[in-house]
Design a protein that fits this description.
CATH architecture of the largest domain: 3-Layer(aba) Sandwich
Bound molecules: guanine
Order of helices and strands: EHEHEHEHHHEHEHEEEEHEH
Number of helices: 10
Largest sheet: 6 strands, parallel
Strand content: 15-25%
CATH topology of the largest domain: Rossmann fold
Helix content: 40-55%
Strand order of the largest sheet: 1-11-8-7-5-6
CATH superfamily of the largest domain: NAD(P)-binding Rossmann-like Domain
CATH class of the largest domain: Alpha Beta
Shape: globular
Length: 282
């Protein structure tokens, strides 16, 4: 039986610490961190995420702007908005919610965000810094996953980690942060042969593939640490992760639930990144 990695509680703790910092900065500088979130179109999941990000910012005392743009927005129009925030001293973090509508050139938009305001950590400059092991703004979801090891005193040095998924948002930066933390990392993806047998060697499994309950007990070595980045909806409408929770719970030493695991940490780390960008700009 595993110990639950409680993302809801850890995220609350991080957010409370940030709120205390905001209060201090307000007194000493008269300023607070500012985050601008841009949402293009009507994607239902994105709307929920953006609302949650906005609420978390307001609760921690941040300045929070949500800019909702129509589905028909052009790359040029979006670039103009990004530039406006690039030049606004009250905005320390800019987040363009993904996915973007097809007509928009996603990389052009992400590369236009000033690296020092890139609180998603998606700009190639920040990706490069992360990959050479430097300190910078790290992508929020993998960064949130790393926080669990620290909080629960899980020593990962020299351990073998398997990341399932190679996206730029989660899989690749996750691998990079795990290497930086001295684990030995294997990245599996849709073309990998026999993912289950690769996972069975792992002390740590991070599942980020977007397939409901893909990681079953036969993927998991007794005592492994299992981090579930998935957020899927089953046929019956219930939320579930990429891990078959009940059967893996019986085998793992630590496991994140869905919901209440990685999800809340992503938002907490977005606030942490915005604080970092704010403090760097003071
Ligand atoms: N869409 C899904 N996850 C993310 C994220 O971490 N950042 C942004 N900008 N969009 C997302």
């Amino acid at each position: 039986m595993a110990t639950l990695l409680d993302g809801k509680a850890l995220a609350q703790k991080v957010r409370a610490q940030l709120k205390t910092k905001v209060d201090k900065h307000k007194v000493t500088t008269g300023r607070v961190p500012g985050l601008a979130v841009v949402l293009v179109g009507e994607d239902p999941a994105s709307q929920v995420y953006v609302r949650m990000k906005n609420k978390a910012c307001e609760e921690a005392g941040y300045k929070s702007i949500v800019n909702r743009m129509p589905d028909s927005t052009t790359t040029e129009q979006l670039l103009a908005v990004v530039n406006e925030y690039n030049n606004d001293d009250s905005i320390n973090g800019i987040l363009v919610q993904l996915p973007l509508p097809d007509q928009i050139n996603e990389s052009e938009v992400l590369y236009a965000i000033k690296p020092e305001k890139d609180v998603d950590g998606f700009h190639p400059f920040n990706v490069g810094l992360m990959n050479i092991g430097a300190d910078t703004l790290f992508p929020c979801t993998p960064y949130g996953c790393m926080k669990f090891f620290e909080e629960y005193g899980i020593d990962i040095t020299g351990k073998s980690a398997v990341v399932i998924g190679r996206s730029n948002i989660v899989g690749k930066p996750m691998a990079s942060l795990l290497i930086k933390a001295n684990t030995t990392v294997t990245v599996c993806h849709s073309k990998t042969k026999d993912i289950a047998s690769v996972c069975r060697q792992a002390d740590i499994i991070v599942a980020a593939i977007g397939r409901a309950e893909y990681v079953t007990a036969d993927f998991v070595k007794e005592g492994a640490v299992v981090i579930d980045v998935g957020m899927n909806r089953k046929e019956d409408g219930k939320l579930c992760g990429d891990v078959a929770f009940d059967e893996v719970y019986a085998k793992a030493s630590y496991i994140t639930p869905v919901p209440g695991g990685v999800g809340p940490m992503t938002i907490a780390m977005l606030l942490a990144n915005t604080m970092k960008a704010f403090e760097a700009a003071l």
